[in-house]
């Protein structure tokens, strides 16, 4: 009969390791929202988390590994907000009305998120356009597909994949431009142009 002693000891150790990893992530997020990306050094993270610097490397390759994780979490948070809004939209309003409502929801959610903008700037500065553009089966592509379904738009056979790739790349790049605009009126104008562009493409 196998002993249960190892399991009894292992569970608390796993719980402590998870708690420490979660603390590193939470403290990094606090630094990012308060002081920006440059301030989120491993030394600063360790100080904030009240752990030795070496402990960070037990869970992450480096500080960029933590930041990349937080970028994905922030992105998923914002896309989740938009997905929830999509569920409340009445079908059959057409692409323009549906897309415009959702892209404005995206803009508001991204602007109000404590780290989304700073993390998006970091990702754009440290990666190629290819790396930062959401690809097939990404949350953004799924959101665009759902938007088309709710709007009642069916893409032509044979062009669907290429059209989706074009739309997702365009939306990803241009919405970043709107997010960088602090003047809400100017941001609205950019959102209108994104909507005009994609409406003409899909309708």
Which helices and strands occur, and which strands form pairs?
Elements: H1 5-35, H2 42-49, H3 53-56, H4 63-87, H5 95-112, H6 116-126, H7 129-132, H8 139-151, H9 160-180, H10 184-202
Q: Which properties best describe this structure?
A:
203 residues, Arc Repressor Mutant, subunit A, 2 domains, elongated, disordered N terminus
Domain count:
2
Shape: elongated
Instruction: List unreliable stretches of 5+ residues.
Output: 1-11
Order of helices and strands: HHHHHHHHHH
Discrete helix count: 10
Radius of gyration: 21 Å
Mean pLDDT: 87
β-strand amount: under 5%
The count of DSSP E runs of length 2 or more, i.e. the number of strands, is 0
Protein name: TetR family transcriptional regulator
Keywords: DNA-binding, Transcription, Transcription regulation
How would you characterize this protein structure?
The chain has two domains: 1-60, Homeodomain-like (Arc Repressor Mutant, subunit A); 70-202. The protein has helices at 5-35, 42-49, 53-56, 63-87, 95-112, 116-126, 129-132, 139-151, 160-180, 184-202. It has ten helices and no strands. By secondary structure, it is mostly helical. The model is unreliable at 1-11 (pLDDT under 50).
């Amino acid at each position: 009969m196998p002993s249960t002693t190892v399991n009894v000891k292992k569970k608390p150790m796993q719980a402590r390791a998870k708690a420490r990893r979660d603390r590193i992530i939470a403290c990094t997020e606090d630094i990012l929202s308060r002081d920006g990306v440059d301030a989120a050094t491993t030394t600063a993270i360790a100080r904030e988390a009240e752990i030795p610097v070496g402990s960070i490397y037990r869970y992450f390759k480096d500080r960029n590994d933590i930041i990349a994780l937080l970028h994905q979490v922030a992105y998923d948070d914002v896309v989740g907000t938009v997905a929830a809004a999509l569920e409340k939209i009445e079908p059959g309003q057409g692409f323009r009305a549906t897309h415009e409502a959702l892209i404005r929801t995206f803009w508001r959610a991204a602007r109000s998120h404590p780290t989304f903008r700073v993390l998006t700037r970091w990702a754009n500065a440290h990666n190629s356009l290819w790396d930062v553009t959401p690809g097939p089966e990404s949350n953004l592509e799924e959101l665009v597909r759902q938007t088309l379904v709710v709007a009642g738009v069916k893409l032509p056979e044979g062009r669907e994949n290429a059209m989706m790739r074009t739309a997702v790349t365009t939306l990803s790049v241009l919405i970043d431009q709107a997010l960088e605009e602090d003047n809400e009126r100017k941001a609205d104008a950019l959102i209108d142009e994104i909507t005009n562009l994609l409406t003409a493409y899909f309708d």
